[in-house]
Amino acid sequence: MKRIKRKELKKDEFVSTINKVVLFFGERKKEFMALGVLFLFVILIFIGFRLARVRSNKRENRLLTQIIELSSELNDNPENVAKLEELAGKGKFTRLAYIFLATHFLEKGDYDQAAISLERMKKSKKDIFYYKAQDLLAQIQVKRKNYDKAIDIYKKIEEENPKEYSLDVILFHRAEVYEEKGEIEEALSLYQKIKEDFPLTNYGADASQKIIKLEEKK
């Protein structure tokens, strides 16, 4: 009899618990429905965001392909300059169009237009495109014989020591400025630093060759 009573008590407790749970959800039906709608809304936003991001990446990749194709034919098709200027903008890859345009004008000897292309480029984000633009700006200053301005640009980049841009490139270009300026000892010192700090890079090998040539001239 005691076992039967214990079973009935447990059964009553279980039924009571279920009733309490049902009653709890029943009394808060509207709240839980609202939470369900909110949860569904959050999921839909997340899915929409993911889809938009995929579409955005596809669009950026298409733009990148266009920019590369247009820039590769700049010398043969001058009309591509106008097309690149139309694509140039603030996007992740569209800023690359400014880099290609500046490089093109620099090679053509149109330093003013090269500088204008770089000035139009958004500079708030210090990524690889930003530092490449700064490198090109320094090269423009070298072409204009403004050696000290070019050196200052390279020194500032060196001080920032960006992860996005190889420091051996900046040091090598600064050494070249000293060399062109006629400050051979400064150039040799930098080439030696590049040789020691970046022995396995192309610029490390080039620095070794520069040292040999400059030592022969002394």
What's this model, at a glance?
The chain is mainly alpha-helical. Helices cover 81% and strands 0% of the residues. The protein is elongated, with a radius of gyration of 32 Å.
Low-confidence stretches: 2-12, 17-56
CATH top level assignment: Mainly Alpha
The dominant shape is elongated
Q: Percent range for helical residues?
A: over 70%
* H/E element order: HHHHHHHHHH
- In total, how many domains does the architecture comprise? 1
Give the strand tally.
0
Task: Label the structural class.
Answer: mainly alpha
Q: Could you report the average pLDDT, rounded to the nearest whole number? A: 76
Number of helices: 10
Named CATH topology: Serine Threonine Protein Phosphatase 5, Tetratricopeptide repeat
Strand content: under 5%
Assembly type:
single chain
Secondary structure blueprint with pairings:
Blueprint: H1 2-27, H2 29-72, H3 80-87, H4 95-108, H5 111-119, H6 128-143, H7 147-160, H8 167-181, H9 184-197, H10 202-217
Helix pairs in contact: 2-3, 2-4, 4-5, 4-6, 5-6, 6-7, 7-8, 8-9, 9-10
Describe the structure.
This protein has 218 residues and is mainly alpha-helical. It has a single domain (2-165), classed as Serine Threonine Protein Phosphatase 5, Tetratricopeptide repeat, CATH 1.25.40. It has helices at residues 2-27, 29-72, 80-87, 95-108, 111-119, 128-143, 147-160, 167-181, 184-197, 202-217. Helix 2 (29-72) packs parallel to helix 4 (95-108), helix 4 runs antiparallel to helix 5 and helix 6 (128-143) runs antiparallel to helix 7 (147-160).
